[in-house]
Write a structure and sequence with these properties.
Rossmann fold, 7-stranded mixed sheet, 10 strands, 30% helix, globular
Length: 204
């Protein structure tokens, strides 16, 4: 089995587990997408209890549906939020919490475009990165939907010095998305903070 086939096998097992056990919010399952899992709000709340979250003034988030509760909590706590536009087609969206009244709307992918402050983020510093994942192992190796968007986002933020090698990179997932082993390639970026609905796992 090739590495690509192994990754596809892992994805399918996770998609099947979430769908067959009723943990996917999508009626036909999450196949081909970052899972929008039931309990994403619980994982977000647990993340917000972490020291990494409490220290963060500016948080970066992927635009995935599972991270809507993360983005909402960030804005609710008056933390500034940078969200990647889908596929980075429109670059990054900056959401200045203090200027947003409808924070629930702003936390959605569509709402972020409405409430975007249209500010260049080049000179900003991000204190915490939150990415969506299909699967992740306890060593911090993650697998996405196969398009490489999260890897591109993290690599770009590093190149711009918006984050550095000490910046916490988190993912919020359902326990079914935590697997024994994720095969990796040279371009794959690791996470060092894994938050499920019932535990926080820190990776050295």
């Amino acid at each position: 089995m090739t590495l690509k086939e192994e990754k596809e096998r892992i994805r399918k097992e996770i998609y099947d587990a979430l769908f067959n056990n009723g943990f996917s919010r999508r009626p036909k399952g999450d196949y081909g997408k970052i899972p929008d899992f039931k309990g994403s709000d619980i994982a977000a709340e647990l993340l917000s209890k972490s020291d990494e979250w409490k220290r963060a003034k500016t948080i970066f988030s992927s635009p995935d549906s599972a991270q809507i509760p993360v983005r909402y909590l960030a804005l609710k706590e008056n933390k500034n939020l940078i969200m990647a536009s889908p596929n980075l087609t429109h670059g990054y969206l900056f959401l200045e919490a203090s200027k947003i009244t409808n924070k629930k709307e702003a936390a959605t992918k569509e709402g972020a475009f409405i409430h975007n402050s249209k500010i260049d983020i080049s000179n900003m510093k991000v204190d915490l990165v939150v990415e969506g994942s299909v699967g992740v192992d306890r060593e911090g190796h993650r697998i996405g939907k196969g398009k490489g968007f999260a890897d591109r986002e993290i690599e770009d933020l590093l190149k711009r010095n918006i984050i550095n090698n000490d910046t916490a990179i988190a993912t919020t997932i359902h326990p079914f998305q935590l697997v024994d082993h994720v095969p990796t390639e040279s371009h794959d970026q690791k996470v060092n903070l894994i938050v499920t609905t019932d535990e926080i796992i820190r990776v050295d």
